[in-house]
Amino acid sequence: MRNVYKLLFAAALLLSQTLFAQKDDTIRILAVGNGLSAEAVTRDLPGYFEAAGQKVVLAYAVRLSSDYAKQAELARSGAEGFSYSKLSGNGTWTEERKVSLAAALADEKWDIVSLQTQSAQAARRESIDPGLGQLLKFVRKRTPKSVRIMYFQTWPYANQSTKHWMAFGHNNVNMYPQIAATSKEFCEKYSLEVIPVGTAIRSLRTSFSMQGDITYGDHLNKTMGAYLCAATFFEAVTGLDARDYTDAYAPYTLENHVRREMAAKCAHYACLKPFEFTNMSSGTGTYGSVEAGLPNYDETLVPQYTLPDPLVMNDGSPVKGIEQWEGERREELLELFRSEVYGHSPARREGQHYKIVKEDPNAFGGMATRREVLIYFDSSEDRYIRLMTYVPNGLEGPAPAFLLLNTSGNASVNEDTNISYPDEHQLIQYEIHGFPYYGQYRHFYPLELILSRGYAFLTFFKSDCDPDFDDGFQNGIHPYIYKEGQTFPEPDQWGSISAWAWGMSRVMDYLEEGQTEVNAAKVSTIGHSRAGKTALWAAAQDTRFAMAISNCSGCSGAAIARRRYGQTVRQINTTFPQWFCRNYIKYMDNEDALPVDQHELVALIAPRPVYVGSAAGDRWADPKGEFLSLVHAQSVYAMYGYSGLPSDEWPDVRHPMIGDHMGYHIRLGRHSLTGYDWDRYLDFADIYLK
Ligand code: GCU
User: Fold this and answer.
1) Count of other CB atoms within 10 angstroms of residue 147
2) In testing the pocket of ligand 1, which one of 286, 529, 612 has its CB within 8 Å of the most ligand atoms?
3) Which of 252, 537, 597, 661 is deepest in the core (most CB within 10 A)?
4) How far is CA 118 from CA 32, 33, 71, 425, 598, in A?
5) Which CATH number fits domain 2-272: 3.40.50.1110, 3.40.50.11540, 3.20.20.70, 2.40.50.100?
6) Are 170 and 434 in contact (CB under 8 A)?
């Protein structure tokens, strides 16, 4: 009889369990490992599940920096050595507490437990066992039979990462095969499923052109890295196609849909082939990947467009004259560029001050004095611009000057090894893009020529304000604009170009307040490429600059966006999301909706002289579009009585145009800043700065 009851009881239990299982479609996931596992489940993963309408209980039990051996040892000792937190129903994470692994395993009826070893060990097969075997035994004993145990595959580090690199020749390409082979071997050995984030990262690196990387050392960044990780985790766990949810899940950290789609695509292919990366690039070169749209280089395919008129107010009424232009329209235009393109910047900070830290009165055999001045942004002295100045010796009065944002560091400007380098805060940039050697880009900056023509040359490194890679606006001076508790810019707050332009204005503060050898009223901004965009934007906002020169500044610099020739708004936002405010994304494939175009950026410099330089071989930057910005800015110069260009016809190469407060040339050759360019700029400056 007893046996019958037992049997009946067992049958009832089974039935209720089946019913329960049918009713409860929540997936319960515990991520065991170290900090990388905690990041994986807490960042974008909850949002991904929510977008897919999949109920989930997520938790992590982690021991920082630990590998399988350490985790197994701790688990078996019963020590409360794991930090544990769980996503509760109301969307908040419970306060992290110290628990034993046994307690974490007992806290829920887990459907999935993921296991993760320390990221460097993930590439060393000999480090995996016996730790993993012991850990598995421990977990299996304490979880339902049906539990799925998954191997969380980590990723190769960022190139140049200083940690744990010796074995991989400082190259993530070398680290990947070992991670893949190790995870494959142990998944097979223990019949584990895999969460192939490492493979997805490897595919992304090879398929998608990014500036910088999606990892910092061993951590994924909070934008594309976090998204890709969530997409991979989600698909590996649910079997649902991660690509189907990129519209539904668009976190503010990754508003660019091209990037979301690419991340999900890499996740999807990694789930199909977890131990082999997939190259999805079109093979058309660094910037022309299919994902970002192939560039158009055919003039006949430039679409019809209508440019906004700089001399028409937002309400449609015409600007009546200089007074209204300066008093109202300029402000309107600046506001549009700020809120829709580059982002708003804050005012200068309290306590800004300056210190001259180096001086060499004998630079170039006595031709000039070289100084290094630290421009501290506030009294804390936490951050500063290291401005390098060369002022010609023996001039009668204060020198007119060029101020240039350099993109590889002051040391790259000249071979003089007395130039200080690197500063602590610059390391993050150098580690990602490489350390320059002294004078590496000296051909960009013919200092003796510039000095001999009676000009001072002032320069600083972009990364003093903001390192140039997509990190979700975490580094650099972005926080200067944040309110308390804010960690990410609002859609209309500054990207890197605004931050760099802000730095140029801080240099102008110094020129006005901290020295007398340079004539602060005779300073031209100048820059090449991204720094050319910055040179225009800095001068547009800060009228203390007497002139602006943009060299090969291209898309979002001098080139008309509506032409969609070469680089487009879509491409630039996709490859360089850090440069702009996030509102700019709205205009990808939607240039006609832009409330401004780049000729209005040029117009904002009026009535001050402006010069645009192009190169025939720099089609990516749309040389003709760069010229047309000048053409369409002329109406504003005309209001001041300046005739602008001598002709509206795009000139041939080597026929520079020096007009009235406007200059233009297109030279032979490629995307670069050459002696030929400088000759033209110096001739132009001689007219207006002397
Ligand atoms: C890339 C980018 C351009 C930019 C250039 C540079 O080519 O697409 O927009 O001007 O880099 O800064 O060198």
Assistant:
1) 18
2) 529
3) 537
4) 11, 8, 10, 27, 49
5) 3.40.50.1110
6) no
What's the 559 CA to ligand 1 centre distance in angstroms? Answer: 12
Going from the C-alpha of 659 to that of each of 91, 540, 548, 648, 687, the distances in angstroms are 62, 20, 15, 11, 11
Phi/psi for 659 (5° steps) reads: -105, -150
Cα 142 to averaged position of ligand 1 atoms, centre (Å): 55
Q: How far apart are CA 473 and CA 494, in angstroms?
A: 9
Question: From ligand 1's centre to the CA of 497, what distance in Å?
Answer: 12
Say if strands 657-658 and 662-667 run parallel, antiparallel, or are unpaired: antiparallel
| Band (2; pLDDT cuts 50, 70, 90) | very low
Q: Answer whether 0.85 is exceeded by the pTM.
A: no
Which class would CATH give 339-349+406-442+465-688?
alpha beta
- pLDDT confidence of residue 14: 46
For the chain, which residues make up each domain, given as ranges? 2-272, 339-349+406-442+465-688
% of the chain with per-residue pLDDT over 70 = 92
Q: Which atom of ligand 1 is nearest to the CA of 287?
A: 8
Q: What is the pLDDT of residues 499-523, one digit of tens each?
A: 999 999 999 999 999 999 999 999 9
Whole-angstrom Cα distance, residue 565 to residue 307?
15
The distance between the two most distant Cα atoms of the chain, rounded to a whole number of Å, is 116
Please check the confidence at residue 20 and state whether its pLDDT lies above 70. no
